[in-house]
Specification:
- This protein has 315 residues and is α+β, with helices and mostly antiparallel strands.
- The chain folds into 2 domains: 106 residues; 136 residues, Heat Shock Protein 90.
- It is 69% helix and 11% strand.
- It has 8 helices and 5 strands.
- A 5-stranded mixed sheet has the order 1-2-3-5-4, with helices on one face.
- The longest helix is centred in the N-terminal third of the chain and has 83 residues.
- The chain is elongated, with a radius of gyration of 35 Å.
């Protein structure tokens, strides 16, 4: 009786396995490996059904015993062949995954390039549109200088002239931040140096920048990604860390480029980044951008011990 129950359970389970396997054949695009494995489940179920009927016959039939044995041989051949051929299925899945990653990178690169091109266009529109207008206003104000004799009018004129100068400088800063001409004309090291020098002039924080790449260039995509990453890291340090000093090193090695960032701020728990949209999103964007140029971004921070970041790119 126990054997009969075991046979029934075995038959039911193998039929279910065969049905499930056949349903999965469409997902595997009817590959031979999966068809063979599916058929092996079917033949195993048939073998158990034969044993089930032989159980009620009492005396085993030699013919059915031989059929059962040869079914076992066929099942073994199908399983071995399926396992050998299923390697192609896994390779296909691996290729599909690699193709998906390539597609994602192409999409991200397209988004980043579109974003950078739009920034360049906007920067050019501001510089070429508002710049000449304000310069003309400045010339007009200068022409009025000799005509206004009233002291109060002179004060107003001087103040207006000062505001126009501030507006011109602000437009230059905005245009340069959107699309730094130093980066496109002189390279990454020069652009970071110019950016950090400008921040040092504010006396809000001390930034020490060192590099052995003064006159060396990278692919424009890589330069843009690293430059934007440095700007984001510095911005985070200014807004969140309370740091008084930042150290940045950009170095070219034999086969790769590294950028090391360190600040002496208050640090933070990196596991809490997902709960801080302003800081977490910026750092997540850095990681996403770095990955699009086949780079690595590593961030380390401990409360009370500052923050460090490493960007590593192949040349």
């Amino acid at each position: 009786m126990v054997r009969l129950i075991a046979l029934v359970i075995s038959i039911v389970l193998q039929i279910i396995a065969a049905v499930i396997a056949f349903r999965f054949m469409k997902l595997t695009r009817y590959r031979v490996s999966w068809i063979l494995l599916s058929l092996s489940f079917v033949f195993m179920a048939v073998s158990k059904i034969i044993q089930f009927f032989e159980f009620f016959r009492g005396t085993p039939s030699y013919t059915w015993q031989m059929v059962d044995e040869w079914l076992g041989v066929v099942v073994s051949i199908f399983i071995i062949s399926g396992v050998i051929l299923i390697r192609e299925l896994f390779l296909s899945l691996k290729r599909a995954d690699a193709e998906r990653l390539k597609t994602e990178k192409r999409v991200l690169n397209a988004i980043i390039n579109t974003e950078e091109n739009e920034k360049k266009r906007f920067a050019k529109d501001i510089h070429d549109g508002l710049g000449p207008i304000l310069s003309t206003v400045k010339m007009s104000l200068s022409a009025l200088t000799d005509r206004i004799k009233d002291p109060s009018g002179t004060v107003i004129l001087n103040n207006t002239n000062h505001l126009v100068n501030e507006a011109i400088n602000t437009i230059k800063d905005i245009s340069n931040n959107l699309s730094p001409h130093v980066l496109s004309n002189f390279g990454l090291a020069s652009a970071i140096s110019a950016f950090t020098t400008k921040i040092n002039q504010t006396k809000t924080i001390e930034i020490d920048f060192k590099s052995n790449m003064e006159k060396q260039r990278l692919d424009s995509d890589k330069e843009v990604v690293v430059y934007r990453a440095v700007c984001e890291l510095i911005n985070n340090a200014l807004l969140h860390s309370g740091a008084s000093r930042i150290e940045i090193e950009l170095n070219k090695h034999e086969k790769f480029i590294t950028l090391q960032f360190n600040d002496n701020g208050r640090g933070f728990d990196t596991s809490a980044l997902s709960h801080n949209d302003s800081k977490g999103m910026g750092l997540s964007n850095i990681e996403t951008r770095v990955k699009t140029v086949e780079g690595v971004f590593i961030l380390e921070s401990t409360p009370g011990k500052g923050t460090s970041a490493l960007i590593k790119l192949t040349e």
